[in-house]
Amino acid sequence: MLSLTVSERLALKSRAQALKPTVMIGNAGLTESVLKEIAQTLKIHELIKIRVLGDDRAQREAMLESICTQLNAAPVQHIGKMLVVYQPNPDAHKIEIKKMPRHKGKPLTKKQLGSRS
After folding, report:
1. Which has the closest alpha carbon to 50: 13, 9, 22?
2. Distance CA 61, CA 70 (A)
3. DSSP symbol at 102
4. Among 80, 40, 83, 48, which Cα is nearest to 64's?
5. What would the pLDDT profile of 23-52 be if each residue is shown by its tens digit?
6. pTM, to two decimals
7. Which residue, 18, 37, 40, 106, is most buried by CB atoms nearer than 10 A?
């Protein structure tokens, strides 16, 4: 399973907001055919959303873990019934992960930094 840094995960989360779910996992769960479909979609798009129809949160977390370990992908986000998965593809290379700036403008002063805590 791939691992992402915090800044990479934030950049991918922001890109994933505009995406629509491309794969749905139904009541049958994570079958071999669904896993193949996820693998094919990841090769094309690199970053995908997966909708899971089950209500059990622990089961969805297990599905995300299973998908990422079997396909050597990175889990980006799990919100509600949506899973976001990233797998870099050097051939397609559609997504460039850039570090996101934490703030814009000039650096914070000592007084501003002290008032944050």
Report:
1. 22
2. 14
3. S
4. 83
5. 999 989 999 999 999 999 999 999 999 999
6. 0.79
7. 37
